[in-house]
Amino acid sequence: MAAGKKAEYEKSKLYRVRHSAAHVMAQAVTEMFPAGEAKVAIGPPIEDGFYYDFDLPRALTPEDLEKIEKRMREIIRSDYAFERRVLSADEARKIFKDQDYKLELIDGLEKGGLDEYGEPIEEKPEISIYTQDSFVDLCRGPHVERTSEINPDAIKLLNVAGAYWHGDENLPMLQRIYGTAWMTADELEQYLWRLEEARKRDHRKLGRELDLYSINEQVGAGLILWHPKGGMVRKIAEDYLRDEHERGGYEFVYSPHIGKASLWETSGHLDWYAENMYAPLEIDGQQYYLKPMNCPFHVHIFKSRTRSYRDLPLRYAEWGTVYRYERSGVLHGLMRVRGFTQDDAHLFCRPDQMPEEIDRVLQFSLDVLRAFGFEDFQAYLSTRNPDKAAGSPEQWEAPTEALRQALERAKVPYQVDEGEATFYGPKIDLKLCDSLGREWQLTTIQFDFTLPERFDLAYVGEDGEEHRPYMIHRALVGSMERFMGVLIEHYAGALPVWLSPVQAILIPIADRHIGYADEVAEELRSAGYRVEVDSRSERMNAKIRDAQLQKIPYMLVVGDREAEAHEVAVRLRSEEDLGAMSIEDLMSSIQDDIQAGV
Ligand SMILES: [Zn+2]
Ligand SMILES: [Zn+2]
To answer: Is residue 1's pLDDT more than 90?
Structure first.
């Protein structure tokens, strides 16, 4: 969730309802066990609901969840008040004497610097508890006034998952119950539908079923193996992107996967990005690091010769594979990985060229994303954080204004995240909404004050003097891996015809029709289409079903009649039956679909 939206959510009634539902759930769970045997950890509201972590004498079953849910409704209907009390750490320790996790949290609160969820905070917090009925929780709130403000028909417990205390693999594994709560039963129902739909579209499930990619334990977690079909989709997407970049005035560069420690010292990565970088390797007594970013290499290409004001702008693009450390617990299919390919570019320009460059790059990003079938965008403009920012407030003004005006001109809805910029410059994050209304952050346009300084970049101006160029980092789809995941989920695996790894499949009715099927396949292939022949000795209906499951756009059934007339009987993956048509008509129909982006 974006910072602004999150702040708004935290002030909402729904947030208090969900937080209160978490407490009610914790009461119901603790009641199931003899006093003191159920240990409670933390239970915050989250984006679409809430959870609570428990340390219990036994594993919870689906039947338990039903029971807990039923008991929650009783507690809600009993209309208990949520009562808040401020107390000293010692008093709190007495109340939670059997609750080891709470005792640890109380220590954190007393020392300051941690809130009741163990998250770092600035101030030293007041210690407070909330009580409803017989249940007491260490909690800063806020809550609704009474349990009856939770709608008993709009809550649902979803599942139990393992979760480490403090997310740390070396600490005890707890049982986390996820639940959701809404204001109305209708909203709950819609949410459950979206969940179900998201499950069906899960790129990890579809990736396996459509044979697109895999992750192999022996290769390593978070490292992607692209199979031929997934590789084909990626190739088509990359070919398209490269062509567009060439048309858009970008030049292609290539850089190595490792660089010397001194490079990453100069760039600052070893200072502020080290926790995402892998341990160095040693070559000839020198330390080298796997690259987490491509920027320093592109900077050196810029620096490799004297640049004149006439050479600018320069736009260097690279499909650069970078490696970043992610904790094993957060790895997720194609979405969170340890090695990925960025469609990266760095723009170097004169200050006077900067507004136009930003306009161009924003428009370029939108055009390309639209070509992939995305229509809804939401932009976030992050501005200077006075506490940590390279460059003076005056230096930030022009780039921030240029970013803002580019958003205005492109007519993209945007929100300003005041003070949310990283220290090196203002940026635009462009998120897109997929077919389920989920937001995905893909494009970043990031202004940078620091690298031109650190690497002492210069160009010779009209006045014959050396000047510092402006530098903009830009990734359009961000990570090719993640973008593939978003595409798969957005289209539920039924990729548009131009992106489909197999566009048409010939289905011979009997073995004697294989010859004709091969002939048609050859004809289509030589016209540039991606075609397969299903020559297995399965029944026709089984072949059609399999092709449907593979989400192949055109199924071309051929039997005696079709062979005689040099035609194919066309069925679509939508189950629509187009009947028999000539090969020429089929090709023009495929062309129409490609043009329409379906
Ligand atoms: Zn609480
Ligand atoms: Zn960069």
So the answer is: no
Structure tokens at 457: 């970049």
Mean pLDDT score of the chain? 94
Nearest ligand (C-alpha, residue 344)? 2
pLDDT in tens, 303-354: 999 999 999 999 999 999 999 999 988 999 999 999 999 999 999 999 999 9
Please tell me the distance between residue 15's alpha carbon and the centre of ligand 1 in angstroms.
Answer: 11
Among all bound ligands, the one having the nearest atom to the CA of 18 is 1
Largest CA distance in the chain: 91
Q: Is 457 a residue whose pLDDT tops 80?
A: yes
| Under 8 Å between Cβ of 501 and 230 | yes
**Centroid of ligand 1 to alpha carbon of 141 (angstroms):** 5
374 CA from centroid of ligand 2 (Å): 25
Q: How many angstroms separate the alpha carbon of residue 530 from the centre of ligand 2? A: 36
Minimum-distance ligand to the CA of 27? 1
Position 317 scores a pLDDT of 98
The model's confidence at residue 68, banded by pLDDT at 50, 70 and 90, is very high
Q: CA nearest 77: which of 110, 28, 16?
A: 28
Measured in angstroms, how far is the CA atom of residue 447 from the centroid of ligand 2? Answer: 10
Structural contact between residues 491 and 503, judged by C-beta atoms closer than 8 angstroms: no
| AA letter at 397 | E
CB atoms within 10 A of CB 386: 9
Tokens describing residue 456: 């002492």
> Which residues participate in catalysis according to the annotation?
295, 324, 342, 344, 346, 427, 473
Amino acid at residue number 8: E
Q: Who contacts 563 (Cβ-Cβ below 8 Å, separation ≥6)?
A: 513, 516
